[in-house]
Amino acid sequence: MQRCVNVIGVGMSPFSSAALSPDTVALIGHTARQALVDAGVPASSLGAVYAAADGPDAAALQPGLEPIGVGQVPLRRVGQGSDLFSEACQAIAQGQVESILVLGVQSAPTVLADLSGRLERLGSTAREYMARYQARRETFAMIAVKARQHAALNPLAAFQQPLSLDQVLGARMLAEPLTQPQFAWPAAGAAALVLCSSEFASRFCNGPVIRTLAQACVSPVQIAGASLGSTFADVGYDTHVAAARELYEQAGRGPQEVEVCEVHDGSTLDELLLYEALGFCLEGGAEKLVEEGDNTYGGNLVVNPSGGLLSLGQAQSLSALAQCIELTRQLRGSAGRRQVANAGIALQHHVGATGTVITTLYQRS
Predict the structure, then answer these.
(1) 251: closest CA among 341, 330, 345?
(2) I need a surface site. Which of 96, 156, 279, 280 has the fewest CB within 10 A?
């Protein structure tokens, strides 16, 4: 039987659409120290450090960690933040280690690969969705408006300026019917978590403990040839459906029990389709969900209270960690003006570089 994985400490810098301070070493140390102080555990108690960083950022890891007392802890580098998070969870669940400091750093925004091809696929799928369900372009734009409304309450978001519906619709068209504010753009930042087993938490932790109820990782290869009833193949819809089904089955919970979630909103189309793929409404029902405000405060579910990737910005090394941090704060009741009332069950959804979908369900112990 696998052990329970717990989140006991979090730390994060502001996200930025521009390069951060050139002192990456100090940024790493400050963010990691935030997570350790939040957890209330000594650096000497850590069993491992898992880190996602590339190029010069990778070279700064060891000197950044040494001043806070974890320079001698075994360091493992993982390519992407989503892989980093799931691998760290698995290491604890399988009994390989008791506690892990998980760190992601990206000191400069990374250019998105194959941007023109991605835009073409998203635009084509959005038009297909509109034709199939007689959806309006305004519905997609409303998701961008909602994202900025949430981000206005988040001082760590890269894009906090509120946008009206007319501003979103009137912005530069990138992939009909999707305009520039309807896409997540590259950002920089740093984030850190302390994950541990329940045994470790009982020995060292006096603060609130957030536990993972279940985690599912599904790659496109796993469902190749399988038909789950979707034709939105260009955006990996079936993979999202499979990851959601596996997650709920593992946890013995249903989507109706989720009160707050952070999803991989690479675009407003992605978020709209995820409402359906994750079971928050029936297929074709996302427009009604958006129009009735059931994806924000006052509705049945708050989606991306942080502002999501649309407003935080997209940073491959740490976006998954940022999602976990937001949900941890929500379940602790410490999210300030973004707090979702009585949040008890939270869902995280993230997509890795290879298209693998990682879904995680959390609950406060």
Answers:
(1) 345
(2) 96
Judge if pTM exceeds 0.85: yes
- With bands split at pLDDT 50, 70 and 90, how would you rate the model's confidence at 231? low
Residue 352, classed as helix, strand or coil, is coil
User: What's the token pair of residue 5?
Assistant: 């994985």
Task: For residue 95, list its beta bridge partners.
Answer: none
**Is 141:169 a contact under the CB 8 Å cutoff?**
yes
Using CA atoms, how far apart are residues 59 and 257, in angstroms rounded to an integer? 43
Contact (CB, 8 A) for 225 and 24:
no
Strands 345-351 and 260-262, sheet pairing: parallel
Return the closest-CA partner of residue 175 out of 231, 125, 226.
125
Q: What is the SS3 string spanning 82-100? A: HHHHHHHHHHHHCCCCCEE
Q: Give the Cα separation of 52 and 59 in Å (integer).
A: 11
Taking CA 331 as the corner, what is the angle to CA 330 and CA 337, rounded to the nearest 5 degrees? Answer: 25
For 210, list phi and psi in degrees, rounded to 5.
Answer: -105, 120
> pLDDT tens-digit profile of 174-220?
999 999 999 999 999 999 999 999 999 999 988 899 999 999 999 99
Q: At what angle do helices 268-277 and 115-133 cross, to 10 degrees?
A: 50
The C-alpha atoms of residue 2 and residue 197 are separated, in whole angstroms, by: 10
- Please give the Cα distance from 141 to 152 (Å, whole number): 17
Amino acid identity at 196: C
28-68 pLDDT, tens digit each:
999 999 999 999 999 999 999 999 998 889 999 999 999 99
Residue among 16, 317, 307 nearest 187 (CA): 16
Please list, in sequence order, all residues whose beta carbon lies within 8 angstroms of the beta carbon of residue 136, skipping any fewer than 6 positions away. Answer: 130, 287
> DSSP 3-state assignment of 305?
coil
